[in-house]
Amino acid sequence: MGSSRADDARRDAERAADRQRAIQRVIDEKDARSGGGSGEGKSPVQAGDREQPERMPKQHLEKPGNEHELELQPRFLAPGYVGSDKLRDMVAIVTGGDSGIGRAVAVLFAREGADVAVMYLDEHEDAEATRRHVEAEGRRCITIPGDVKDPAFCERAVRQVVDEFGRLDILVNNAAFQQHTDSLEDVSDALLKETLETNIGGYFHMARAALPHMKRGACIINTSSETARFGNAKLLAYSATKGAIDAFTMSLASNLLERGIRVNAVAPGPVWTPLNPADRPAEEVAHFGEDSDMGRPAQPEEVSPAYVFLASPVTGSYVNGAILPVMGGPRG
Prior knowledge:
The chain is α/β, with parallel strands linked by helices.
C-alpha cells in the first residue's frame, strides 16, 4: 500500500517536471529566435522622434575623454525639442558641461531661456564648442576650467558666475570620474580617492559654494546612475559614489525644503559620452549599451529633457528628493 502511494507520488512528480520542462522549452525556443536574454543579438529599440545610433565604434580614448575625438559624435542638439521659456532669464551652472550629458543639458537650458556657466576639467576645445552652441540658442555662456575636488576652486567659480550674471538659480552637479577594475584588489588608493573626491566630494563642494547665492525657487540637480540601484561588478568605486549621491540628494532635499530650494537627481542608464570610451577597451566599447533593456545606449539628447523637467518651476515645483530614472527600461 505504502509502495503504491510512493509510486503514484513519483509519477505525479514526473508529470509535473514534464510540464515544467514543456514550459521551459517554449521560452527557450523564443529566446533562441530573439537572441536570448543576455542582450547579445537583441534588436535595439527606437522609441523617439528620430532614429538613434545602435552600434558604437571600437574606440578607446585617453582620460578625461574629449568629445571631439569620438568617431561617433554624441547627439546633443535635440532638434525636435522646442523651447517654451521654462527657464526664462535664469542662470545655471553645469559641471562637466563640456561634453556628454552636461553639454546636452547646457544646450536645452539655453533653449529654455537660461544663461549657462560651463565648468569642466581641461577639455578646452569641447568646452568652447558647448559655449558656441549655447550662444547659438541666444543666451550667454561662460566656461570655467578647474577641479571640483578643490573647495577653493568651487567657491571662486561660483563667485565668478554670480559676478558675471548677477544671480544663480540652478546647479547641475554632473562632473564625474570613472575607472573600471576587475577586482577590489585593483582599486588602488589613488583610484578610490579620485573617484570619491570627484563624484561625491565635488557635489558637496559645489552645493556648499552655491547655496549662499540661491534664493527660494532655486534648485540643485545631481547626476546619479543606474549603478546606484543595481551596482556594477567592474565599477566598484564609481557605483559606491553614485549610491552616495542618491543619499546626498534625498538628505539635502529635506535639509533645504524650508528654504524653498529643491534638490533632485537624474539616474541615467548607459549613455554615449566620452566617459565610457575613456574607461573601457575598444572591443568592449563596441558593445556598450547592448545589455540595456533597449539594446543600445542613450544619446545625451534623450536624457537632457529630464533635467529641464526637474529644473523648471513650471514642471518641477512639487518634485523634491526624487531620483528620476532615465534608463531605457526598469532594469536599465
